[in-house]
Each structure stands twice: as C-alpha cells, then as structure tokens.
Amino acid sequence: MSVRILALVGSLRTGSTNRQLAEAAVKTAPEGTEIVLFEGLGEVPFYNEDIDVEGSVPAAAVKLREAAGSADAFLLFSPEYNGTIPAVLKNAIDWLSRPYGAGAFTGKPAAVVGTAFGQFGGVWAQDEARKAVGIAGGKVLEDAKLSIPGSLTRFAETHPSDDAEVVAQLTEVVTSLHGQATEPAAA
C-alpha cells in the first residue's frame, strides 16, 4: 500500500539543515512511500479563531489543510529556537488542530525529527512538537526519533542525503510511519 507523508519543516531559511534533512527524506523514501515537502509555511498567518471561519480562511491556511487532509501521516522537522519549537511549526500545528476534535492530525501517525547546532540536536524542541501534535489528535510515534547534534559542522560539506548513518536512521523513522499508516484502525 502506498503511503503519503506530509513533511513540515520548522525553519524558513533556504539553507536550513532541517530543510536539507527533509530533502534527504524525500530523496531516500522507501518504495511505496511518497514524502511531500510542504512549501509555504511562512505564508500561513498566525492562527486566530476570528479568521478561521468558513468562507474567510486565508488561502495559505486552506492550502496547508488540503495538503494535510490528503496525507496518511506526518513527518515534522524541527530545529530548536531558544530551547523550544519554532513559531512557524507551532503555527502549522495550531491550524491543523482545528476544528477541535476533527483536525488534520486526528488519528494519523506522526513523527518528529531534526537537527540543531547544539550538542543535543534539538531534543527539547522536538519533544515540544511531539506534545503539541499529540494534543492536536495525532498518533505520535514516540520511538521514532532522530536528533542530530552539531548540524553546522556535520553538514558543512555534506548534504544529509549523502550521510549513510543519517539516511539509515531517517529510513527507520519513515518505515515506522509507513507501518503505522497502513495498520488497520483499532476496533
């Protein structure tokens, strides 16, 4: 069974190592898995219930919700900003958590990975993202983790898709997502 995974990157910077990690996931996705890298998180306005009204939802938020609605699973890539999740990624989670109880994450598997310059690879931010996605209704894969420290040094001259260790670990995460997305729903 083919599985469509929506990738959301919490860094807007063109040369972001988290974006590169997402590109590696797209490039090395196992057979039967399509990873779609969402473009446009920077255009999604901050979540506000006053604008989340049928007929007036901003186009960028509609685009995000449509992409999420067609996904079987989610793969979030989170750097760490000041010890926590980047605002752009939290905002995407907020938009996808609505309507309450029936948002795009509801019942779908999700994993959070990432890389950061610090010695822990963004673990705090990734934990916060897992928490937010779980509260939004996602089926968070707690064991599917990948936190790569020292990103600026490690990927200074190598793209993550050319790092065999990273590709192997990323493939494990994607394979876990694929497996959860194809599991029959619990009765």
Written account of the structure:
The protein contains 6 helices and 5 strands; from the N terminus they run βαβαβαβαβαα. It is 37% helix and 18% strand. The chain starts with a strand and ends in a 5-residue tail after the last helix. The longest helix is centred in the last third of the chain and has 19 residues, at 164-182. It is α/β, with parallel strands linked by helices. Strands 2-1-3-4-5 form a 5-stranded parallel sheet, with helices on both faces.
Q: In a nutshell, what does this entry contain?
A:
The protein has about 190 residues and is α/β, with parallel strands linked by helices. It has helices at about 15-30, 60-70, 85-95, 125-135, 150-155, 165-180, and strands spanning about 5-10, 35, 75, 110-115, 140-150.
Feature tags:
187 residues; 18% strand; 6 helices
The number of strands is 5
Largest sheet, strands/sense/barrel: 5 strands, parallel
- Along the chain, the helix and strand elements come as EHEHEHEHEHH
Give the radius of gyration.
Answer: 16 Å
Taking pLDDT < 50 over at least 5 consecutive residues as the criterion, the unreliable ranges are none
Question: CA-to-CA gap between the ends?
Answer: 20 Å
Biggest sheet strand order reads 2-1-3-4-5
Helix content: 25-40%
Residue-averaged pLDDT: 94
**How many alpha or pi helices?**
6
| Residue share in β-strands | 15-25%
The dominant shape is: globular
Main structural class: alpha/beta
